[in-house]
Amino acid sequence: MPKKPLILITDDEDSIRNILRDILEFEKYDVIDTSNGKDALAIVKKEPVDLMILDIKMKGMDGIEVLEKIKESQPDLPVIMISGHGTIQIAVEATKKGAFDFIEKPPDLNRMLVTVRNALNSRELIRENKQIRTELHGAKQIIGESPVMVKIKSTISKIAPSDSRVLITGENGTGKELVARSIHNQSRRSSKKFIDVNCAAIPSELLESELFGHEKGAFTGAVGKRIGKFEQADGGTLFLDEIGDMSADAQAKVLRALQENQITRVGGSEVIDVDVRVISATNKDLAQEIDEGSFREDLFHRLSVIPIHLPPLRERKEDIEPLAQSFLSALREKDIVFAGKTFSDDAIEALKNQKWSGNIRELQNVIERLALLSPDDTITAKDIDSLVTNRRSDKKVLDDLIEENDSFPDYKDEAERLFLIRKLEKYDWNISATAEAIDIQRSHIYNKMKKYDIER
């Protein structure tokens, strides 16, 4: 038998509570009632409440204050506000703070029942939506019990319910997007969209259109209207990855959007209101970028209300084992590798001794390689030595290169091809990060990849 929805009634008038309890229990709902906000908050913490009916005017803590606290801890819990002093202003305020609906006293019981059913249906849709999003986007937990990661997870829990902007810094592969998604998933916006934009992957001349959209005919090739990422993320979260690669023009427009909560599409004149929480990330030192004049200081201060720095994996080696075990477990669950595949103790130690310049992303790729190519059910330090550490010595690679190429141009081309492949692998095929690391333009990398027929 399916569980009956549990409804909490909070009102300091006994008669109202009794009427609502009778009608709701007649409709086969489970009901709890209380006369004050303090007790209501305590009940919500302990009981699996599905819906709350809350009076606005009460002694002690009023309904609006209770609503605010509920939305901080349980943003998806629908709350129907009731009041005998109803005004449009009160109704608007309650709705802005997250109330599902507002009903005047004495409540019309038919309307109340319809609203209750709609609110419970809405909650169920939100639950299903979250489940689908988890399945589609592979929502993952942040793994790591090192002191620094425990502190970061605690920070995420504290800041997630707010709308404060967050700037996540750290090397490539440290999990910046995972942190951003975790903040979104724990926020009151979790039922809305999480839109991510890699600012480094979009040419500067197209980034403005990508972020703010454009009208038909705004520029050559604009054959129709386009809705930008800010509008797509309305009500949800916009994740601006590699923010340090944003052009000066785009920086100015993003700053204006953050200041005014409004945007204008490229080629348009309509001012569009947007309600977006912005989380940004970068692997660059933005303080240095500001000193060099390539990043706006005012934008930096707008973005970094809450700074979170993710340390490289080599600085938190105690997290390597749980991460490696998690990656291996995921491969087992997908039947990619034998269910009994495990690590030996010396394998874990060998993993901890690696440099991990590509951080968690590199570790994940290495675990997949070890799981697929190690010959036995137990992955050992010997496997790591042969498949990860010393696949071919640098001298052997150089000797083979010289031996296999008779002409200098051929040798030079092959050396360039191998160098580029090695660097692309190191930075998980992130063109922008690779270009920055080897000090050439992104367009040159694309040209070299085409020349040498390099594909991921």
List the helices and strands and how they pair.
Elements: E1 6-10, H1 14-26, E2 30-34, H2 37-46, E3 51-55, H3 63-73, E4 79-83, H4 88-96, E5 101-104, H5 109-137, H6 147-159, E6 166-169, H7 176-185, E7 194-198, H8 204-212, H9 229-232, E8 237-241, H10 248-260, E9 262-263, E10 272-273, E11 277-282, H11 286-291, H12 297-303, E12 306-309, H13 320-333, E13 342-343, H14 345-352, H15 359-373, E14 378-379, H16 381-389, H17 394-404, H18 408-426, H19 431-438, H20 442-451
Parallel strand pairs: 1-2, 1-3, 3-4, 4-5, 6-11, 6-12, 7-8, 8-11, 13-14
Antiparallel strand pairs: 9-10
Helix pairs in contact: 2-3, 8-10, 13-15, 14-16, 15-16, 19-20
What does this structure look like?
The protein has 456 residues and is of the alpha/beta class. The chain folds into four domains: 130 residues, Rossmann fold (3-Layer(aba) Sandwich), CATH 3.40.50; 153 residues, 3-Layer(aba) Sandwich (Rossmann fold), CATH 3.40.50; 76 residues, Helicase, Ruva Protein, domain 3 (Orthogonal Bundle), CATH 1.10.8; 58 residues, Homeodomain-like (Arc Repressor Mutant, subunit A, Orthogonal Bundle), CATH 1.10.10.60. It is built from 20 helices and 14 strands. The strands form four sheets. Strands 2-1-3-4-5 form a five-stranded parallel beta sheet, sandwiched between helices. Strands 7-8-11-6-12 form a five-stranded parallel beta sheet. α13 crosses α15. It is globular, with a radius of gyration of 28 Å. The relative contact order is 0.07.
